[in-house]
Amino acid sequence: AVKEEFRQFEMEVGEIVEEMRSFTHEGSVATYIPELRHADPGTLGCALYTKNGTCVSFGDGEETFTLQSVSKVVALALAVMDSGEDQVFDKVGMEPTGGPFYSIARLALMNSSKPLNPMINAGALTVTSMIGGRTEAEKVERLLRFIRELTGNDALTYDSAVAASEFRTADYNRALAYLLKGEGVIDSDIGIEPLLDVYTKQCALSMSCCDLARIVFIFGHEGRSPETGEQIVPAPVARMVKTFMVTCGMYNESGELAIRAGIPAKSGVSGAILGSVPDGMGIGIYSPALNEKGNSRAGVELLKRLSRHFQLSIF
Ligand code: GLN
């Protein structure tokens, strides 16, 4: 009977995913990172990592893509594990901005150099500077080891074409990082070009929807490995990351998504979204056509629809 129920559930999700595909026409693929413009805007994939440790994927769920800003949740967990919560939040705030992810204006306008939260670029660059390792190569290794543990995928790496493409064109992030260093938020020992090298590789971590779904499954299960129960992320860190996903994960669409879906989620400009639901199921979505807030157009619709259909709101 359980099997039958699951088959029914799978069928319903599959139908919803196909229905949501029409929304892909209403968005457009990000082009400010030149390498991202090759994505096919009609793509919509989804994967669910369920309690019994299995992953089912739907639509174009087998496609691979880069994490982009979804990596901010991974980097935050790692920086807190490596540098400690006090150190991280001495430099980065905990409040939503209501502004776009690249916002520089807020930094200047708030009359405080401290980035408002770790999910906007200014905060994320600061967070990445606090990942453990003496050299940039060590920091990248540290990130790779962590992401391989989270996904259970030992072959996982970054897409070097996407990383190089962003590194070449990252003038906005460069400006932010130099400003933050000038303000003493980013440590004076940190070289900004090496930091951008780590940051762009972090954003270019490449994976499938199932990898994405497993990452968020772990955050939804107090940071434990689905197979061994081993603590990959300390439970309080996992909870903190999920809370940031609610308040800041979808930039200036976070409030609306909390109301309409109630699913802690984090998006990236590649069109990736991960979402965590109450029983701990992990949702990974990829659909590269974005809305005006920089979130996956069909992806957001899919989260809302799944939430309504299966009553997945945490509230
Ligand atoms: N790598 C991108 C950037 O820093 C990530 C932004 C995003 O996904 N919203 O611009």
Q: What is the topology?
A:
Blueprint: H1 2-20, E1 28-29, E2 45-49, E3 55-59, E4 65-66, H2 71-83, H3 85-91, H4 105-109, H5 121-128, H6 136-151, H7 160-169, H8 171-182, H9 192-203, E5 206-207, H10 209-220, H11 235-248, H12 254-260, E6 265-267, E7 272-276, E8 282-286, E9 289-290, H13 297-310
Antiparallel strand pairs: 1-9, 2-3, 2-8, 4-5, 6-7, 7-8
The site of glutamine has 10 residues, from loops.
Organism: Salicibibacter kimchii
GO molecular function: glutaminase activity
Protein name: Glutaminase
Summarize the structure.
The protein is α+β, with helices and mostly antiparallel strands and 315 residues long. The protein contains 13 helices and 9 strands.
Overview of this protein structure:
- The chain is α+β, with helices and mostly antiparallel strands and about 325 residues long.
- Helix content is about 45%, strand content about 10%.
- Strands 3-2-8-7-6 form a 5-stranded antiparallel sheet. The chain has a two-stranded antiparallel sheet with strand order 1-9.
- β2 (about 45-50) and β3 form a beta hairpin.
- The longest helix is centred in the N-terminal third of the chain and has 19 residues, at about 1-20.
- The chain binds glutamine (GLN).
- Glutamine binds near residues 68, 69, 203 and 294.
